[in-house]
Amino acid sequence: MPGDADKVKERLDLVELIGEYIQLLRAGSANFKTRCPFHNEKTPSFYVSKERQMWHCFGCGEGGDHFTFVQKMEGMDFPEALKLLAGKAGIELERYDAKLESERTRLLGLLDLAAKFYEKVLLEHPGAQIARDYVKTREIPETTARAFRLGFALDSWDSLSTFLSGRGHTQDEILRAGLASRREGARGIYDRFRGRLMFPISNVHGHIVGFTGRVLDPNAKEAKYVNSPETALYKKGAILYALDRARQAIKRAGYVIVVEGNMDAVSCHKIGMEQTVASSGTALTRDQLNLLKRFTSNILISFDADMAGESAAKRGIDLALSEGFSVKIIRLPSGVGKDPDDCIRTNPEVWKKAVGGAVSIMEYLFEIIPAGKDLSTAEGKKDVGNALLREIIKLPDQIEQTHWLGRLASMIQVPESVLRERLPSGKEKPERREDPSRAPAVTSRSQRLFEGFISLLLTFPEHAPAAIELVRPEMLPDEEIRRLYTHLIIRYTGVSGRAYAGDFGLEIELSPLERRLLLQGERDFEGMAQAAESEIRKYAREVRRDFIVRELARLQSDMAAAERSGDRGRADDLSRKYHELMQTQ
Ligand SMILES: [Zn+2]
């Protein structure tokens, strides 16, 4: 009887599963590739095999099956990944449930219960009239409010804590969920969120991990937005508001809209622009970009009018650019309010047009940096020129650089050649971040030959006998490859004599090398079934020749040593072996 993990693998197609996280491109008839989500790269070396139901990145060497992918992607351990995938596959788990009734699960349950409480208060409680009025003036339809599970925290010190305690949660748990604070110098706790419209914050799976509370009284002295504190579940810089509801739309649209406030995101969803997420007021972080990378590489960022050139926001954009995203800026026209939510309530068409007219970051900077500067003065030219040159330097593409240099030259009326002198030479140019420490070790020609040989065998096991005839395991100098080859020989010629390719994967635990070579074979040799046998023979002969050349060299040096030490017998022996080997070549 197959275990839970195998049942999950049987029911869930790996290509579809990975496709939910990142966009996959076809590579041949049954394989898919993409840029690796686990290391920074420009060209795709992340492969997924539909037939084998396994994945491998030729860039960083990561690879595996459904579970390893989800574990890496979600930062989960195996039981968590199993639970997630079993849920997707509609499989009831028996064995792991007790283990998973962990703190994490209990906290998720508590947070969900809190969201239910806030929701109900917003809908029904007499004390929530101010919030119901606010939602109405914000023109949020009930369906949207329900979809986002908007709620209200009463202006009370203990209504939520009391409710949760009554449902069997301890004070300690309520504290750890970030929903209450400890009373200073006294026993007990008090509600963290009071008198605020509540936005539950979900992780990418739709599990509530925290809240944002927005103050409703415009004269209130407290901060307009308050977030949950960092907890075991909620990491502010690693969450994008509404991403759980936006992921499908982002993939369909081919881009994501990033707005600043949660209310902006809700408004965008309300008018059908569901490819919108909110950064909740922070500059984009690397964690957030990694989340987005699963769905798209195109970001449209909405800047509030007063955010122009703000350095924190700009840092987020620079980070996105260096991570290989294409970034465009949505500019709100003046007179339609200060943020997307205002604009949408004024006129949704204006917002849609602003999204459609998003410009590249360079275009945007060329608009805002010179704004208000007098370009007829030397001072103005210097300021604007230097500021824009700093941006032009960062561009990775020379043609693009030249384009913007030309624009700058004519804008400040300074010859392009003068500006160009200010650019650092090619070598000093800041490179995009690629992590060299994770690149695979340089493989010698021989190593490539051996790997090609094995990957061919794994791809076309039916031709293995032709190879086994020619290549003995000891001809392979690399220990890991030799062990794998020996293993293959046993498998192909083994007692069971069972066909190999078909029941692969479920039966045997693959070594990382084997997995890599399997996918490498599919990548490099796909569609050459006709020529497979002759190709295998060719590789086998090469491997053999490689061995003989090395062996001859070894015998020669041994012979020289034997002669030096006067061991005639041994020298003759070696000489005979040497000539025998020469014959076989
Ligand atoms: Zn990789």
TrEMBL record:
Q: Which residues does the annotated region (Disordered) include?
A: 420-444, 561-585
The similarity annotation says:
Belongs to the DnaG primase family.
| Protein name in UniProt | DNA primase
Quote the record's cofactor note: Binds 1 zinc ion per monomer.
- Catalytic activity entry: ssDNA + n NTP = ssDNA/pppN(pN)n-1 hybrid + (n-1) diphosphate
Name a single GO cellular component.
primosome complex
In what ranges is there compositional bias, type Basic and acidic residues?
Answer: 420-437, 564-585
Q: Which InterPro entries match?
A: DNA_primase_core_N_sf, DNA_primase_DnaB-bd, DNA_primase_DnaG, DNA_primase_Znf_CHC2, DnaG_bac, DNAG_N, DnaG_primase, TOPRIM_DnaG_bac
The organism is: Candidatus Uhrbacteria bacterium RIFCSPHIGHO2_02_FULL_57_19
Q: Which CDD domains match?
A: TOPRIM_DnaG_primases
**Zinc finger residue extent: CHC2-type:** 36-60
Fill in the subunit field for this protein: Monomer. Interacts with DnaB.
Q: Which domain of life is it from?
A: Bacteria
What GO annotations for molecular function exist for this entry?
DNA binding; DNA-directed RNA polymerase activity; zinc ion binding
The job of this chain, per UniProt, is described as: RNA polymerase that catalyzes the synthesis of short RNA molecules used as primers for DNA polymerase during DNA replication.
- For whether the record's keyword set contains Chloroplast, the answer is no
- EC class of the enzyme, as a word: transferase
Which residues belong to any copy of the Toprim domain?
Answer: 254-337
Q: Which UniProt keywords apply?
A: DNA replication, DNA-binding, DNA-directed RNA polymerase, Magnesium, Metal-binding, Nucleotidyltransferase, Primosome, Transcription, Transferase, Zinc, Zinc-finger
Q: What is known of its domains?
A: Contains an N-terminal zinc-binding domain, a central core domain that contains the primase activity, and a C-terminal DnaB-binding domain.
The record's EC number reads: 2.7.7.101
GO-annotated biological processes: DNA replication, synthesis of primer
High-level lineage: Bacteria, Candidatus Uhriibacteriota
Recorded hits in SMART domains, A to Z, give: TOPRIM (SM00493), ZnF_CHCC (SM00400)
Cofactor(s) recorded for this entry are:
Zn(2+)
